[in-house]
Amino acid sequence: MTHQPLFRIAFTLLLALAAAGLCVWLRTPLPWMIGPLVATAAASVRGAPTQSWNPLRNAGQWTIGAALGLYFTPQVTALVAGLWWAIVLAIVWALGLGWAFGAWLHRGNAQRMEGTARQRRATTYFAGAIGGASEMTLLAEREGARTDLVAASHSLRLLVVTMMIPFGFTFSGLHGIDLTPPGPRAVHWGGLLLLACATGAGGWLMRRTGRANPWFMGSLLVAMGFTMAGVDLSAIPQWMTNAAQLVIGLSLGVRFEARFVHTAPRWLGSVLLGTVGMIVLCTAFAALLAWACGLHPATMILGTSPGGIAEMAITAKVLQLGVPVVTAFQVCRLVAVLVLVEPLYRWSSRWEKPQAEG
After folding, report:
1. In the predicted model, is pLDDT for residue 354 greater than 70?
2. 74: Cβ contacts below 8 Å, ≥ 6 apart
3. Which of 116, 249, 290, 356 has its CA 20 to 30 A from that of 256?
4. Alpha carbon distance 167, 184 (integer Å)
5. What CA–CA distance (Å, rounded) separates 308 from 300?
6. What is the pTM of this model?
7. Alpha carbon distance 86, 289 (integer Å)
8. pLDDT recorded at residue 183
């Protein structure tokens, strides 16, 4: 690594740390994630030399995955397993809502977009899908879509959701309702080292097999396995989860480069308005699902929100809002979207072509 990237990474880390410290002092929601996210996004848009380092981001996801896996005690696992029908409904809801969001983007922006009709449709479809930004952008590229618009859509959606929901919960007083604390509560350095090695191996295996979010998912599954089996190795120190939130927040913030504000202002406005609409619709759906499940609405809102899995799981952990349920809903949705969103696009394309010809 040359001196220039090292300087940019160090500058970004110091900026993120200062922002986190300020947010801790101000007592804002999720200070270790939202502070770095906002500060690095603002600096990046203004052209400051910000840069994320993938190994640090991977380590952050690794840490958060392990911390969340420790919540899945046998009792909690039985509770989550009993909600399989609600998880299926949430997956169907996410796929349908993503399709509707994409159709809305297409209706308002397709006539002003460059490229063929197929490219325009692929762009709006994958920009609306509720999935990971990098994964949806990769799928969009395979279908010939405009990846800059797709990436901008998902980055802005994640930013809006990550800002609105934690602040909304904090100002409404919704926190501390989780009655399922993680299994291990004390830090044992020998056990922590063993847990780190095991979860690291899980992340490495996921990466070698080409899975999405490998360091998060691999670490989560291994930590879940230990906890479900009643193996108590160690808790995760608070300073490690704080550091993980910091690097995850800044890795999202640096996506907003200076050219971002010049990316089709009408498109960004449509994404912003649509994201707020999706949050409102998901809140209503979550309230109905919570009533049917007998769970707190705040837990269901996080489980069904159109945000990223790491960001929503961190929100649940910090505010103590049903971590295992939120994690299970978000993980199952992520897997289902990654598996189904591209086949559904191709199926709908074949169906719409005869309709157009008829």
Report:
1. no
2. 228, 230
3. 116
4. 29
5. 15
6. 0.82
7. 7
8. 64
